[in-house]
Amino acid sequence: MLIHFIHPGSAYLPELAAYGDFLAALGHSAQVHSRPASVPADAVICWWMCGRVPHDAARRLSHAFHIHEYASASVPPWPKVKDRAKRALQPMPQYRLFQNTWVRDRLGFSDGVPYEFRDMGVEPSFLAPCARRAAPEFDGVYLGDMQRLRQFVPLLTALQQAGQRTLLIGEPPADLRKTLHTLGHVTGRVPHGQVPTLLRRARYGLNLVPDQLPYSQQTSTKLIEYCAAGLPVVSTDYDWVRAFEARHGARFAYLPIPDMAGCVVPDVSTLAWPRVLERLALWRRLGLCP
To answer: What is the pTM for the complete model shown?
Structure first.
């Protein structure tokens, strides 16, 4: 079976590679499309990484089984307006996936379409045993979308003034590039397979997430990746991170004055992508596994 994943946006979605690997292990295959028009007319399964689903594309592919996946609710500006628009204007699929119950409730679909939850995972390579450097080159490391660092420039400045060296993994936006290069060592975009080695060049991972919806209620993939790589976590304080800490028996340090004493890095092996995906009932619904 060939599953067509439609992802017209620019966001990096590690789950697409995970889906491809998981389906290949089952003897099936995946194809990712950046434009709905490239999905062939005889497609059997269309998996939309929502985004807006065009009605003309849904009509053209009306014979297919459609899955709408919502890994996030809408982000500012006007997030509630955007979510209401999705609820009112999206064509009806045969199945939906939500990251968690908060995302489902925020979007508010009430049309009886079957659904389940698919949380974020971590590449198994992050969990592979690897010797830590005896003397890491950096104090903290930040991994992820650097657009979100705008409001944390004062924090990074304070860390630098306190003598902390910060590693920033990713590509900064043009208007932040000069500032971030003065506040840490910026790697630029790197292949995902190199990230675990880069993380282990630091003493701890920086989980910088604003205490603002929807971010405060959604999974921080970078935090899971820090834990998988064996790094203690220094974090901003918000609802999701406290719930994760309690659920997994972790202990994190919290800004603005983190106390690293007693930090506990949790075992996140159950969050490896193959284990996350094998729990989906959807595969049996599609007849792709026993």
So the answer is: 0.93
